Amino acid sequence: MNYFPDEVIEHIFDFIASHKDRNSISLVSKSWHKIERCSRKRVFIGNCYAINPERLIERFPSLRSLTLKGKPHFADFNLVPHEWGGFVHPWIVALAKARVGLEELRLKRMVVSDESLELLSRSFSSFKSLVLVSCEGFTTDGLASVAANCRHLRELDLQENEIDDHRGQWLNCFPESSTALTSLNFSCLKGETNLAALERLVARSPNLESLKVNRAVPLDALTRLMSCAPQLVDLGVGSYENEPDQESFMKLMAAIKKCTELRSLSGFSEVAPLCLTAFYPICQNLTSLNLSYAAEIQGNHLIRFIQFCKRLQRLWILDSIGDKGLEVVASTCKELQELRVFPSDLHDEEDNDTAVTEIGLVAISAGCPKLHSILYFCKQMTNAALITVAKNCPNFIRFRLCILEPNKPDHTTSQSLDEGFGAIVQACKGLRRLSVSGLLTDKVFLYIGMYAEQLEMLSIAFAGDTDKGMLYVLNGCKKMRKLEIRDSPFGNAALLADVDKYRTMRSLWMSSCEVTLGGCKRLARNAPWLNVEIINENENNDVMERNEEDEREKVDRLYLYRTVVGARKDAPPCVTIL
Amino acid sequence: MENVGVCDEFVNLKATELRLGLPGTEDGGEEERQKVSCCKSNKRAFPETEKDIESTGKTETASPPKAQIVGWPPVRSYRKNNIQTKKNESEGQGMYVKVSMDGAPYLRKIDLTVYKQYPELMKSLENMFKFSVGEYCEREGYKGSEFVPTYEDKDGDWMLVGDVPWEMFVSSCKRLRIMKGSEAKGLGCGV
């Protein structure tokens, strides 16, 4: 290969897209490293504090597409203080200054400001795609700048962000000349939507494939939108509490029938049962269905709908579907690959007979041979069920089980669920992500360390007995990248046993465990290439001012991650970097 | 036989006993709390309740196992916020009733329990639908506006809002309708 001119090698590298593969290529030789880095267009950074924008740009001058992740995963559950960090602004400033030809920016759990969006919109003339997932800090004013200034915008995808809706006219800010949109998702906006502007925009976007509107788009508007965009592949609808009258219903159904390319359906934050039936004509084409926000639909309506969805590959649903409903899914959706069952009753306020149990899980595993990813919230589980699931589905890549009550044992034997999860890791040789729950001892971690050879991400809550548990995992799982633990009795011995292990991991989170300040300090001393962050939201915030005896004090929240740029400078007072 | 009768009486006595304190808090509660603390040594059974006992700031009594643990269940805040509002409505937490106004394209829903009296309710409705309701008087109903607030009560009858005491209204109101124009005349204005 070294006898080929660089351009040829570069051309060959163009066919290699995966980040892992490109990273491997860059390690082969100096010349390959150079060719690879100069031609690299897409970069994925799993932790925005592992590197800084200046070094990134220096290494990859041809950067076109950047993906950044900020806050740790447990920030989703309010375990990370609001002001922790993850600001995108310095990145945009640096990219703009270096005149990088940025075309795509994908952010997850980052803080984005209107100022950042404005700068973004003015700095990159070829900018095409903005995807923001679980971000916060901006308003519809920021969206207005993006709409107005990004002349070549193709994709604006806002997923589950906290956006301050100024009820402005951001949709109006797309110039009349803007006709390149392929994807528009503003489902998370809470305010009113300028329907006329939206309809005009959709009408002049012939390449629009994905449209996800917010709650405020009523039925008649949706009908008009679908009528002028029958090419839609992915549709997110609004909120339809009231039954439509006969005429509206017929119009809606007629519009839906024309959308023969429709493969993915979501939204439905509220939907009257009759409304749902208008979608029956296209159910047979659906490969992806997300009804997980439709809290008011009763199980029987859901079941009737799903019975038409024979080609479904991805299903996100609420547990109000019940075990019976899952049995219907199992017998209908033979192509199912990914299932997520979310809890509808978040405060355990009623003794819910319709919630799902181990019965539903077993049914799905038996009926859906292609299933490889599952997220399942349930009230109870048994070892026998998990063992059966493992036998039925050895192809799991992602297995996340959340039993709503912490520490709950097998409800038929009162034993721990060690054996059940053990069966899962033993059978599913390709398992990359696992979340465990229920009553668990150190033994389950012994199994995980022994069998879960491909495991990259593990989430532990209220589990284990001693440091041994965590040690089994750290010693056994060679491919571990992200480990997050809460409310489990793991302490300094486990934390400090193998400091070099953290070189091969992206991050470790431990909250309400047994690690002490002294232990964390020692770790930070022995591993200068780690940022060891202590998060403390108490009144006496300044950990460093305390004297040495406090070394025995338990650390509330610990977040450590490898980095090549040392301690970050934007940490708030409640975060101490050791 | 006599004994059984006495026992029953004793059992019933407890149930009808008048006590000060929140429902559900009695001697049994104490035992339960002790049970929880015992778990501390073996397992981190209910960390949230543990924290309540240990920490200085929180003085809220450790409620039994179903206490809300921070960040549990692990559901994204965005999702929790979107589902929660619906659940509150459907569980009758608050008394949500539909409100329709003649000529308006959508119905609305309001929680009657957030209001303390009629004027507050009226003001809220006026804001919501951008209209003005006129002066109420017992004899002649609402004067000075073409809008008349009415409600359907438990018997299915349409009544004028304001006629019965507030508490009675809240408990008997099934839904609200703001009538407009001539139809309103029959119920409302004395004209």
Automatic annotation (TrEMBL), chain B:
Record flagged with keyword Cytoplasm:
no
Which Gene Ontology cellular component terms are annotated? Answer: nucleus
Q: Which residues form the PB1 domain?
A: 94-181
What is the protein's major site of localization? nucleus
Q: Where are the transmembrane segments?
A: none
On whether Cytoplasm is a keyword of this UniProt record, the answer is no
Which Gene Ontology BP terms does the record give? auxin-activated signaling pathway; regulation of DNA-templated transcription
Query: InterPro entries attached here?
Result: AUX/IAA_dom (IPR033389), AUX_IAA (IPR003311), PB1-like (IPR053793)
Compositionally biased intervals (Basic and acidic residues): 47-57
Q: What does this protein do?
A: Aux/IAA proteins are short-lived transcriptional factors that function as repressors of early auxin response genes at low auxin concentrations.
Q: Describe the family membership recorded for this protein in Swiss-Prot or TrEMBL.
A: Belongs to the Aux/IAA family.
Q: What is this protein called?
A: Auxin-responsive protein
State the species of origin.
Brassica napus (Rape)
